[in-house]
């Protein structure tokens, strides 16, 4: 039985979640592929951290070229987070003919065309399902079963950390700082939570959705964006007295002139609206297509195992369709 060999860049929360998901479901994954799957090398400085799973020490390296230059490695999974060096590493892996899977919305949103072009030029698969909506299979669905549509609108809760914070402030009466610490401890937050709470992470995801749905690239810094740092208990109570909840909403839509509009901001949502009842780290996204009409996606938008699920889904897809 051939083995699909993987080089993993980064073993933080999501890298660990991906490794754990593979160990947890190895039998099913290998049986669906009729091949073994092994993470053979891991680029990671912190070899001592207790990850709750045994990782053989010899897998760790601090030299990315050991992964890019290994002719046996078929797929590189990039889970470092942040724009650099993640983008340069993905480009280097592509230039060496490795297929690339990533969860890194910041890197994709900043360098969308560059990554797509180099992937195409090198005839490799570049997949990033985990970058939007964590475990929710939205990107593959837009590019597959919903491909026959012209899209009019996308609207949703795309950041688990801020939804978790707003939920805990609303439902549990928690202070903002306590809820943020809790979200960080559970592995939802970005390395620097500013990206979450200022709405930047949601804007990165909206950039990716707009590129796929409208074939239009809008840099995240060009999306009008307001985060949740100004949301106080008083504002949440005021929303409640108007039978509303405050949610951080990412929204892009075509206006009557077919011009695409976009924004990320906290909004008052009626308590009866489905988005008002998306709790904790869950995400939900509405998409409107001209043939299918409304479709709603719902699931865990952050966290090591849900994100690991999407990462490995991409690996399986590459193994089934490209590595035959
Ligand atoms: N920090 C992100 C979030 C992780 O909270 O949604 C998943 O993209």
Question: Would you kindly provide a written description of the structure presented here, covering whatever features stand out?
Answer:
With about 325 residues, the protein is an alpha/beta fold. It has 13 helices and eleven strands. Strands 3-2-1-4-5-6 form a six-stranded parallel sheet, with helices on both faces. The chain has a five-stranded antiparallel sheet with strand order 9-8-7-10-11. Strand 8 (about 245-255) and strand 9 (about 260-270) form a beta hairpin. Helix 1 packs across helix 13 (about 305-320) and helix 8 (about 160-170) packs across helix 9. Bound molecules: L-homoserine (HSE). L-homoserine binds near residues 189, 190 and 302.
């Amino acid at each position: 039985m051939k083995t699909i060999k993987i080089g993993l860049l980064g073993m933080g929360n999501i890298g660990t979640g991906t490794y754990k998901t593979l160990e947890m479901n190895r039998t099913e994954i290998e049986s669906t592929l009729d091949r073994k799957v092994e993470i053979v090398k891991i680029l990671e400085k912190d070899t001592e951290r207790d990850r709750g799973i045994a990782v053989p020490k010899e897998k760790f390296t601090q030299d990315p070229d050991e992964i890019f230059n290994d002719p046996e490695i078929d797929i590189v999974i990039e889970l470092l987070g942040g724009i650099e060096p993640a983008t340069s590493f993905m480009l280097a892996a592509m230039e060496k003919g490795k297929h690339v899977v990533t969860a890194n919305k910041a890197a994709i949103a900043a360098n969308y065309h560059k990554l797509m072009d180099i992937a195409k030029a090198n005839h490799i698969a570049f997949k990033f399902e985990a970058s939007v909506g964590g475990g929710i299979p939205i990107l593959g669905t837009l590019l597959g079963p919903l491909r026959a549509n012209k899209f009019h609108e996308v609207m949703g809760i795309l950041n688990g950390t801020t939804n978790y914070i707003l939920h805990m402030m609303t439902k549990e009466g928690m202070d903002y700082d306590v809820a943020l610490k809790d979200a960080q401890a559970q592995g939802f937050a970005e390395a620097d939570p500013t990206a979450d709470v200022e709405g930047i992470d949601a804007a990165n995801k909206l950039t990716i959705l707009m590129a796929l749905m409208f074939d239009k690239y809008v840099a995240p810094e060009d999306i009008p964006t307001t985060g949740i740092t100004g949301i106080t208990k008083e504002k949440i109570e005021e929303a409640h007295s108007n039978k509303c909840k405050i949610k951080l909403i990412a929204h892009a839509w075509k206006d009557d002139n077919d011009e695409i509009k976009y924004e990320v901001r906290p909004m008052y949502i009626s308590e009866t609206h489905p988005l008002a009842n998306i709790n904790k780290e869950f995400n939900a996204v509405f998409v409107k297509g001209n043939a299918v009409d409304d479709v709603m996606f719902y699931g865990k938008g952050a966290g090591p195992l849900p994100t690991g699920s999407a990462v490995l889904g991409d690996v399986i897809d590459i193994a089934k369709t490209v590595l035959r």
